[in-house]
Write a structure and sequence with these properties.
Strand order of the largest sheet: 1-2-3
Low-confidence stretches: none
Largest sheet: 3 strands, antiparallel
Distance between the termini: 23 Å
Number of helices: 1
Strand content: over 45%
Shape: elongated
Radius of gyration: 18 Å
Helix content: 10-25%
Order of helices and strands: EEEH
Number of strands: 3
Length: 66
C-alpha cells in the first residue's frame, strides 16, 4: 500500500505485516456504549514502485469522483 501523511508527505510503499485492535470503555457508567478503539498496524517497506503505478492509482482515485 502507498503511505502518505495528511499534509501530503510521501513515505513510499509498504506491506501490512500485522493488524491489532483493542478497545476500552470511556467511562464506568457507559454500559459499554462509549468506547475508545485503538488500531495498530505493523508495516514493512516493500521498495519503490514505478511512476506508472502511482499514476494508475491516482487515475483510479479520480475516477471514483468523476
Amino acid at each position: 500500500m502507498f503511505v502518505t501523511r495528511g499534509d501530503g508527505r510521501v513515505f513510499g510503499f509498504y506491506g501490512i505485516e500485522s493488524v491489532k485492535q483493542s478497545h476500552t470503555a470511556i467511562g464506568p457508567q457507559t454500559g459499554g456504549i462509549g468506547q475508545a478503539i485503538k488500531h495498530e498496524l505493523k508495516l514493512v517497506p516493500v521498495g519503490q514502485q514505478g511512476a506508472s503505478v502511482g499514476a494508475d492509482m491516482l487515475s483510479t482515485l479520480i475516477s471514483l469522483f468523476g
